[in-house]
Amino acid sequence: MTDYVTEAFVLKKETWNEFDARVMLYTPMFGKMWAKVKSSKKILSRLNGHLEPLNKAMVRVVEKNGYHIVDALRFGRVSPLILNALPLLDALTHEDVPDARMWGIIRSIPYDRDLLYPSLLARKMLEVGGFAPLYAECAICKAKPPHYFMMHTTLFLCDSCIPYSQMMYDEVVSI
């Protein structure tokens, strides 16, 4: 049984069993990771509020039969304007593979709720992931610069071609 204390950015939270939860975190030590939180759905849970999506927190993770969060303290909450970039971060990263450049981007997200350019965050993530929008063109009409990135097909599209793509809203990221 090993425990770690690290900074974390909460990406996702799902119910696990009746009272427990699973939380997807992005940390500098582990990269993207899933961790279980015992009794987080109970009324008197002290961890539940600290482990909500978009929170930056200091967490203590115990590794025994998977990862378990035993302590957490929220020290910041980022703007809800970046919600469209969270699925992109999930798609561009792998579990248990730390990436210092991606962590640097996440860490530089301001704590306040005044993020001026949410698409700039998506552009930076795409550059680190190997999909530089600076050199990209629309996959259909070859127009430059593209304004959208389709995660499942890894294609760039412009404003005039996006209606013809027939993609769902959550599969397209505005850049």
Automatic annotation (TrEMBL):
Keywords for this protein: DNA damage, DNA recombination, DNA repair
Official protein name in the record: DNA replication/recombination mediator RecO N-terminal domain-containing protein
Source organism (scientific name): Candidatus Harrisonbacteria bacterium RIFCSPLOWO2_01_FULL_40_28
Gene3D superfamilies the record matches: Nucleic acid-binding proteins
Domain of life (superkingdom): Bacteria
Residues of the DNA replication/recombination mediator RecO N-terminal domain: 1-67
A cellular component annotation (GO) from this entry: bacterial nucleoid
GO BP terms: DNA recombination; double-strand break repair
InterPro entries: ARFGAP/RecO (IPR037278), DNA_rep/recomb_RecO_N (IPR022572), NA-bd_OB-fold (IPR012340), RecO (IPR003717)
